[in-house]
Amino acid sequence: MTVNLHQPASLVLHPDRLLPTDPRVRDIARRLYDAVRDLPIISPHGHVNPRMLLDNVPFRDPAELFVTPDHYVTRLLHASGVPLEALGVGQGPLSETAARAAWRLLCEHWDLYRGTPVRYWLESELVEIFGVTVRPSAATADAIYDHLAERLSQDEYKPRALFDRFKISALATTDDPCDDLAVHGALVADPTWSGRVIPTFRPDRYLEASEAGWPTLVARLGQVSGEDTSNYAGWVKAMEARRQYFISHGATSADHAHTDCGTEPLQPSEAERIYHAAVAGTATLIEAVALRRHMLLEMARMSTEDGLTMTIHAGVRRDHHQPSAARFGPDTGHDIPLRGDFTDPLRPLLERYGTHPNLKLVLFTLDESTFSRELAPLAGFYPSVYVGQPWWFLDAPDAIRRWRSAITETVGFSRTSGFIDDTRAFCTIPVRHDMSRRLDSGYLATLVAEHRLDEDEALETAVDIVTRLPQEVFKL
Amino acid sequence: MTVNLHQPASLVLHPDRLLPTDPRVRDIARRLYDAVRDLPIISPHGHVNPRMLLDNVPFRDPAELFVTPDHYVTRLLHASGVPLEALGVGQGPLSETAARAAWRLLCEHWDLYRGTPVRYWLESELVEIFGVTVRPSAATADAIYDHLAERLSQDEYKPRALFDRFKISALATTDDPCDDLAVHGALVADPTWSGRVIPTFRPDRYLEASEAGWPTLVARLGQVSGEDTSNYAGWVKAMEARRQYFISHGATSADHAHTDCGTEPLQPSEAERIYHAAVAGTATLIEAVALRRHMLLEMARMSTEDGLTMTIHAGVRRDHHQPSAARFGPDTGHDIPLRGDFTDPLRPLLERYGTHPNLKLVLFTLDESTFSRELAPLAGFYPSVYVGQPWWFLDAPDAIRRWRSAITETVGFSRTSGFIDDTRAFCTIPVRHDMSRRLDSGYLATLVAEHRLDEDEALETAVDIVTRLPQEVFKL
Amino acid sequence: MTVNLHQPASLVLHPDRLLPTDPRVRDIARRLYDAVRDLPIISPHGHVNPRMLLDNVPFRDPAELFVTPDHYVTRLLHASGVPLEALGVGQGPLSETAARAAWRLLCEHWDLYRGTPVRYWLESELVEIFGVTVRPSAATADAIYDHLAERLSQDEYKPRALFDRFKISALATTDDPCDDLAVHGALVADPTWSGRVIPTFRPDRYLEASEAGWPTLVARLGQVSGEDTSNYAGWVKAMEARRQYFISHGATSADHAHTDCGTEPLQPSEAERIYHAAVAGTATLIEAVALRRHMLLEMARMSTEDGLTMTIHAGVRRDHHQPSAARFGPDTGHDIPLRGDFTDPLRPLLERYGTHPNLKLVLFTLDESTFSRELAPLAGFYPSVYVGQPWWFLDAPDAIRRWRSAITETVGFSRTSGFIDDTRAFCTIPVRHDMSRRLDSGYLATLVAEHRLDEDEALETAVDIVTRLPQEVFKL
């Protein structure tokens, strides 16, 4: 059982990983999984930088690919005492020395990730995509680094080649409303490229009037849209214009992330009044929150008109540790979830648009207690509502099983969003989708083994979840 | 695996459905289930219309029996775009054409229910009660409709025959305090009927002084009870009188459903003052809520005196979608749960009556996070408190397992209510109780297989749960 | 299956209890468990009275050992109608008659504990420590009582002998800041004793300025510490002094239990003002809460300086049933959990000290919804934060499994506290630690069986959890 340093532990993926251990159930799960494992990937929400695919330059080094930009990876190292600096966070491109040092830190702390999906994804990437055969450790770090660096220099490891190899049929990025989407346009115009890469409209910051810099942001929104954003009516027109611009570049959804999902409307005059105060920097925090809720309702109204699927990722305290945020920027591992609440906050929206034939509203949460209590009951009545797949901290084997267990009995499978990888780590895309397919196969197999579902229906459902369902929800 | 339209998929119930899949555990579960499967059904809380049993007229059609009045069924069709009108909701008796169309809509969307208890119940009813042998679908809808309609015309499918066949030893209905209970009286007086059908006192609306129509309601309460309900003291006397009336007609429990379960008392003069304001229509919402909490405490006091078991179903936003409520009425699928809270809200009640030998208080929730956090700890100390079985959205196999897992370690089995079907769908009663017995057998079998409980004790517990326990809790 | 009264059911412990039932998974779990089952016990937080070990007098009787002081045991009897008086609660030493009667009540209600960890612990203690071979019941109560009483009179059942037999390498008690720790000192000075028994600093009451008696408490704190506690600055100095005193007697941690874990600071002048008002008995409840949160932040600051590990047990309504508290005192079974909330309340503390190299902050909760939502994300970023093991109502097999499932995917194993028994029931210590080891072996075995972890790493982790981890977190 002890690890021989001269003979490092091997790294092997078992074909039945994540499937049920009971042999009778596993046999069913294998059959279901075989039917979906090689189907193309639809990735309707994520954070990949489209320039990577336009420019198609090789990934710089293993640290850039696996460590530095991925807060799933860096946060647990940080928790164990590794400074974010040492991992290259917030420092731009790293020297070879720094990149190797960051990679070595990951390998030296490989044990930290035992039992986590990060470990599962990293192992799958290393073995399946890069052909690594030994377990990362202090002893093997440099050899693996060299192996990976060599692979990254090959043409078949450049972004476009991997995109094809991953069988991604559609990839959505996440973009600022003022983005000119030139990269997306260039990709469409590129005759050597045929992949589908579409933008997603993400207007969060333009709804948060209490944040520093908001007046500047909406002023820029006015410039870009050609509307007068010194008043609320102009803000609405500007948003509508930018959504149309996004739609003309292929967007099919708009994403909204706020600490709560309140949608209480204001009187029009009150909305104007607060908006003016916010532009002048005199709105109170309470007023700014009220305005944001009013604006979110307005965004839902726009979705009923222009058809962008509306996704809400609610309930996170962003940048919990201000010193780290100040030094390393956002998305550095200390966004912490809050209690969720949907039933009352969404009521104004749903009373107006919950049965609107043109609205698709996908609700994501990090509060598991809302799965059976609020999300499934809402999606089980309102034609517009879908339960989003487990997200972020909950995008993990046991959490996904709990989610299926908590929501299926109220909404079945048809009122769910399909899998969303929501990642900025490009090489985890195939691995995350594969994990989801394995888990759904296992869940469905358990229903079959308990005689709650016939296998032909389980098979149909397994396929539906990764094909028709995301196409319907995200209008792809 | 593809369905041959000329040879529709068969509909068969496996004898081991819902039992553990591990063969060693399943064998234990089978033995436990065998000991309880045929025991009579005690149904201490539900919504069956007693007139059905008094008049004993055949069920009108399959839509009335399985679709139109059952919001468990209609809500998921609605979510998938089927208008409630098309299902006959809120339209009174349907024509044969409309009934057939509603039934066909259910069959065409049979896949929506995969993995849900609704599907499980419907399949069990169709096979076990009605002898259907093919899976519902667009292709088989009409043939099944005809099959069911033919069965419904037979004497053995009339309500009284089914009541006997289901082995229901006691059935509680849910009734308005002003109800004259003539139907219950007529059943008792009927020499050709020997079943036990008892009313339940459900005074919710009389405690909600902020609701439109409340002054009219309490005025009527005064008329029916012969008390002067223009003041609070008279309201109390009227309630006491009507409870006595119910008790004289066999009632053993009173049911209370409000958005919260606050029980903070008011000063007597303050209660009078708010009551008067409410009668005059000038009470504020906050005053009305305070009055309701005071009244709920008063109802607990009455229970200690007259012995009616007090059940609380707390934490639901009723009629979430007002447009649907306005058009189709209440109980049409859009009551949505809220966060639960019991520890502090119930404290005034429990400090007064929590150890009173005559009080039995059963707490139901739709917020799973309260299972281990509040309900089990309360029931694990207060002699008056019992944890209610999973209810509504949680009356489902996985949710029931989670409930047992979350509460048993704190309260064992003795502080639980026994199974409550809480249904208006008559033919689901045996099926729901059977589901519960299977799940409890599985849970107990797992305890045995993990060597946490000897099998003789598991067997005794399995029987106790469906016999002595509901008799004790509901004083039957 | 019926119990023959002349041949009582036997009481036997299965060697595989609590391990997974699937034979392939169980085989792995057995190997992991074998590696940890006999390792010494580290008990870094609990409520054993150290005088017991100093005086080493035999346990008085089975009631004192198993029933009367243990609210885990008495509460469920109370819920079932047994008065706390009849169990000897709050009555000091019992006569032999009273002790026997209390024991008999437990045996007569043995069925109440089916499925609970209390039952599991009691059975393990009776069999493994005391050699009981028949199941407790009305029929066997007296014989078992006599058997136990006989054992208790033997030298090898005296506290020190049991301490050795249990292989306890370190045992922390819980102590008032004004305690002179003479007992701990005497144990250290005793040449016939070599066990490690250390105090824990538990200042709760000194932070709750709204509680009756608080001015008296802080006055006494002033006397004991030699500081002037008539002002806040003196209170701080007094606390610092007492912490040093505890550290000089071996303490390595300070424990804090409040209804919430707010840490919002006050302006220094405002803290002084409220403190003065509180000493004068004129502070409002809101002011007292604000002061307590300020004080809790101050305690964290002290921990960064003196190195005491800070544990927080938050979110319990103590003495929920005031009549019982008045009659029987605290800790008599009616402390009831509240909703948990960590993300925002702890933010002031974590912004200041969350990355401080000298702080170790262990967070315990009774609200399972916070496991994946708040505790794991916090511990997954902040180097100071650890997720506390399931506590109290959650110190139970299924709850521990849910905890591992909910937190491991975010924090792995390294950010957890190791097992804490937190008990005043001395003989449950080995049994609780053994339960935890079995459950962790089962959890790790499942990861191995699902091919999410190699067995050599699972083995290393199983050992780490019970050796290095608690040593690191509690600086032992």
> Can you name the CATH architecture of the largest domain in chain A?
Alpha-Beta Barrel
* Average pLDDT level of chain A: 97
Read across the widest sheet of chain A, the strand sequence of neighbours is: 4-5-8-9
The number of helical runs of chain A is 21
CATH names the topology of the largest domain in chain A as TIM Barrel
Biggest β-sheet of chain A, characterized? 4 strands, parallel
Shape of chain A: globular
Q: Spell the H/E element sequence of chain A.
A: HEHHHHHHHEHEHHHEHHEEHEHEHEHHHH
Protein name (chains A, B, C): Uronate isomerase
GO molecular function (chains A, B, C): glucuronate isomerase activity
Pathway (chains A, B, C): Carbohydrate metabolism; pentose and glucuronate interconversion
Family (chains A, B, C): Belongs to the metallo-dependent hydrolases superfamily. Uronate isomerase family.
What does this structure look like?
Three copies of one chain form a homotrimer. Chain A is α/β, with parallel strands linked by helices. The first copy, chain A, folds into two domains: 59-157, uronate isomerase, domain 2, chain A, CATH 1.10.2020; 167-473, Metal-dependent hydrolases (TIM Barrel, Alpha-Beta Barrel), CATH 3.20.20. Helices cover 49% and strands 6% of the residues of chain A. In chain A, the strands form three sheets. A four-stranded parallel beta sheet of chain A has the order 4-5-8-9, covered by helices on one side. Chain A has a three-stranded parallel beta sheet with strand order 1-2-3. In chain A, helix 17 links the parallel strand 8 and strand 9. In chain A, helix 1 crosses helix 19, helix 1 crosses helix 20 (455-466) and helix 13 (268-279) packs across helix 14. The mean pLDDT of chain A is 97. At the A-B interface, helix 16, helix 17, helix 18, helix 19 and helix 20 of A face helix 4, helix 6, helix 15, strand 7 and helix 18 of B.
